[in-house]
Amino acid sequence: MKFEYQKFILGSHDPRKPLVARPLIPVSLHGNGMKTRSPYFALLDSGADRVIFPADLAAEVGIPDIEKGELEPAVGIAGQRADVYYHNLALQVLGDTRVLPTAVGFSRTVSLPILGRSFFKHFKVVTFSESKEEVELKN
Amino acid sequence: MVNVNNIDLRKISQDLRSFENQWVAITEDTRIVASGPTYGETVRQVKEGSDVVLLKVPSFDASLAPVEA
Questions:
Q1: Is the pLDDT of residue B64 over 90?
Q2: Do B66 and A77 touch (CB under 8 A)?
Q3: Which residue, of A21, A67, A88, A100, has the greatest Cβ tally within 10 A?
C-alpha cells in the first residue's frame, strides 16, 4: 500500500516557501464491536513509540471514559508530558483487509492522531520515500 | 471507498486555515463537506453512504515533533 505525502502550509502563507510534506495514513479504529464510520488520517511517526489518538475518537468505539484504560504518560521532545490511557483495540488501514490488534492510547492533551512504532510492527517493511514523497507499507 | 491518493490538500491549503485544530471531512475530489470540534460531530454531518476521509487539522504556526522521545 502506497500513500502519497500530504502537503501543508507552515507559518504565514508565502508562495516562495516550500510546503511541509507529511506521511498521513488513512485508518479506521475498531473496538467493542464498533468501528469509526469513516477513515481518518493519522500521522505515521517513526519517532513515536506508541499509537496515540485524541480522546474524542474513543467514544466512536464505545469508550465513554478513557481514564478506565491503563495510564502510561508520554513525554515529548521538549519535555512536555501527557497522560495517555491505553485500550486494547484494533486498526485497519484503508485498502487492507487485515484488522490489526493494537494498544491505542487516548489523551485529552494530544490533538493529532499518531501512529508510532507499535503500529509499524504489523508490516514487514515500512518505506519512507522522500524523493517520491510517499510512504509504502508492505505486508 | 475513498482513494486518498486522489486527495491533494494543497488545493484547500488556505481553506484549512479556518479549521485549525478542528476535524474536517474531505471527499476524494478534495472538498471539505463537514467540520466540527470532534470526530463524531463531524462524521455525523456527512450524508450516509458518502465516501470521505477525516482529517484533524494541525496548527499552522509550528512544525510537528514526535509525541514521545
A1: no
A2: yes
A3: A100
